[in-house]
Design a protein that fits this description.
Layout: H1 2-5, H2 24-33, H3 35-42, H4 45-55, H5 66-70, H6 73-81, H7 96-120, H8 136-156, H9 163-166, H10 174-177, H11 182-191, E1 199-202, E2 215-218, E3 239-243, H12 258-262, E4 267-269, E5 278-283
Parallel strand pairs: 1-2, 1-3
Antiparallel strand pairs: 3-5, 4-5
Helix pairs in contact: 7-8
Length: about 280
């Protein structure tokens, strides 16, 4: 239904599955009729690591409620196949979290029974519960869940609970992502050059600063409908602002700017007074 509301335009997220085709129809058809391609993309080390990263924080006890965990399998499969975000810390993966917790809540309550069943296979007399009080296995399951959560939080989390957050040498630390950066002092110089009525294409981190201008476009290699699904800025763009120091920037100097390479007669490089932190281009 979404293409109908978009005037027949293809869904933008079809490009996340480009290995299967260029349209939604091609993607679905190839997934259904080309099992070697489908399972070749699913049965990978990346998929295994992804599953481990989702289950390890709950001590794998979600596996004791396979029916509930299976609710998330279709989404898990789609996320394994997408080419944009393979890291489970991406927001795409958020819908899986409640499913894992739901399965874990039941898995914890089943741990004692599963342990009893396993013991019965290796002992002459099957152990059985004579009361409804928790068994050592039940207690261990509860302790194991919070211990697993704490351990994975310490070593894998980007939150203040994780070691990475406090590690000054990490690219994901408090000091790199949240502390005051000299770029923040330089940015007002950039903002002063761009009239509020301008249409601006800008990179991550500074992009939100232009949302109150006439237009604010994302400057990246992501191909969007407004730019004809080509690797360029929209035709009505007046200014381009490139943050050369942000973590994902692949442009460090004006000579690397796409527009100065392909359309030098249409774009003017404004004088730099930010010590190289920003590149500002203006349409001639």
């Amino acid at each position: 239904m979404i293409p109908w509301f978009r005037g027949g335009a293809e869904l933008h997220y079809v490009r996340y599955f480009s290995k299967f085709g260029d349209t939604m129809g091609e993607v679905v058809w190839n997934m259904l009729t080309n099992p070697s391609l489908l399972f070749g993309e699913l049965l990978t080390t990346k998929t295994t690591l992804y599953a481990l990263s989702m289950l390890a924080p709950v001590g794998f006890l979600a596996l004791l409620s396979p029916g509930r965990l299976a609710v998330g399998l279709p989404l898990f499969g789609i996320l394994c196949l997408n080419e944009l975000a393979a890291d489970p810390r991406h927001h795409f993966h958020a819908p899986l979290v409640p499913v894992v917790f739901w399965a874990t809540s039941i898995g914890v309550s089943r741990a004692g029974k599963v342990f009893d069943t396993l013991c019965s296979r290796f002992t002459v007399s099957s152990p059985h519960r004579v009361t409804s009080s928790p068994t050592p296995a039940d207690s261990f399951a509860r302790q194991f869940v919070w211990a697993s959560s704490l351990t994975t939080a310490l070593f894998l989390s980007m939150s203040p609970a994780g070691i990475t957050f406090w590690d000054a040498g990490s690219s994901l630390s408090l000091w790199r992502l949240y502390a005051h950066d000299p770029r923040a002092d330089q940015f007002p110089k950039v903002l002063a050059k761009i009239p509020r009525e301008s249409r601006v294409a800008s990179t991550d981190f500074v992009h939100p600063r232009f949302t109150h201008h006439e237009r604010s476009y994302d400057y990246s290699h992501y191909r969007r409908r407004i730019a004809g699904y080509e690797d360029r800025v929209p035709d009505d763009t007046d200014f381009i602002v490139i943050d050369t120091r942000h973590p994902y920037s692949d442009i460090k100097s004006p000579s690397q700017a796409r527009e100065l390479q392909t359309e030098p007669d249409r774009w003017e490089l404004l004088p730099d007074d930010t010590d190289g932190d920003f590149i500002v281009l203006r349409r001639k």
